[in-house]
Amino acid sequence: MEIKVFDTKDEMGMAAAHQGAKFINEAILEKGHASIIVATGASQFEMLKHLVEEKIDWQKVSAFHLDEYIGLPISHPASFRKYLKERFVSKVRLKEFYYIDGESDVSMECAKLNKTISECRIDVAFVGIGENGHLAFNDPPADFEIEDPYIEVNLDEKCRLQQLGEGWFKSFEEIPDKAISMSIQQILKSDYIICSVPDQRKADAVQKVVRGGVTPSVPASILKNHKNTILYLDKNSGSFI
């Protein structure tokens, strides 16, 4: 894992987006198209802001949604479909974007997505790390073995409290306790992983990922087993390493 630390969140986001764009453009040059994974949440604000400004032939890019709450309407402020439509999909002209519909039948939705993504080679995954060390919505202890690309998961209390603290929900009771998430093994199949993690509240999780062992109790620690992961931090999230 390569680690890069920047003074500000914006510098971090700009650098992560620029490197990700470089990998996307290389894939397009090599095979005529690219497939990517896109994450959501407050950690991705700056990266996505700069990614949509990069010079990329987006009509040759297909993108996959990383995770979504089960049962949350797309009209809700915390909906990740809403987030991605507003901050990414509406700003570029993609070949295709594969949303996770958390309002549909979960098993059917996973089966549909699993078939589609299994036919793709993922060139770049844009991800973050949660306050509890989660990767996507794979909360600790994460399943490092399951091969299904998309799975139903339970969200732990710390994960849900993070969503409340970021202002996505008005109360803890409003937060769903289940989600559809891309699995750990599917994320690791990506050729390159760009992991953007700003803010002091993530410093403890970052320290555990960087300094600790690879363990399901810190799901994002598995990124150290991926040969092409770049971890982008600001000075606050990187303050404990």
Describe the secondary structure blueprint for this structure.
Layout: E1 2-6, H1 9-31, E2 34-38, H2 45-51, E3 61-65, E4 67-69, H3 80-87, E5 96-98, H4 106-118, E6 124-127, E7 150-154, H5 157-165, E8 178-182, H6 184-188, E9 192-197, H7 203-211, E10 229-234
Parallel strand pairs: 1-10, 2-3, 2-6, 3-5, 6-9, 9-10
Antiparallel strand pairs: 4-8, 7-8
Helix pairs in contact: 1-2
Going by helix content, strand content and strand pairing, the class is alpha/beta
Q: Give me the CATH fold name.
A: Rossmann fold
Q: List how many beta strands DSSP finds.
A: 10
Shape: globular
β-strand percent reads: 15-25%
Q: Estimate the helix proportion, in percent.
A: 25-40%
Task: Tell me the distance between the termini.
Answer: 14 Å
Number of helices: 7
Quick one: biggest sheet?
7 strands, parallel
Question: How many domains, as an integer?
Answer: 1
Which CATH architecture?
A: 3-Layer(aba) Sandwich
Essential attributes:
Rossmann fold; alpha/beta; three-stranded antiparallel beta sheet; globular; 7 helices
Report on this model:
This protein has 241 residues and is α/β, with parallel strands linked by helices. The chain has one domain: Rossmann fold, CATH 3.40.50. It has seven helices and ten strands. A seven-stranded parallel sheet has the order 1-10-9-6-2-3-5, covered by helices on one side. Strands 4-8-7 form a three-stranded antiparallel sheet. Helix 2 links the parallel strand 2 (34-38) and strand 3 (61-65). Helix 1 crosses helix 2 (45-51). It is globular and about 45 Å long.
